[in-house]
Amino acid sequence: MNRQHKLLGVGIAGTVIAALCCFTPALVILLGVVGLSGWLGYLDYALLPALAFFIGLTAYALYRNREDQQQPDCCSPNQQNGTNK
Asked: 25 by DSSP, 3-state: which?
């Protein structure tokens, strides 16, 4: 697995986790059970920027993946001096 695929996987996983925490009461219930319900007021300050970061990371990974797929064959590392190896 190359670097762009790993970056895309991290971006998608982070986006899904941040979205679940933002739009469902899962984190509210978890913090209430653990006794940290006082932190609920600060969740938006952490979760919304995290969601924006992971969406941006996913978009960047998709852009890099598309850019790598559009490279012409003449520039591949397997070709040297005009001959295929």
From this structure: coil
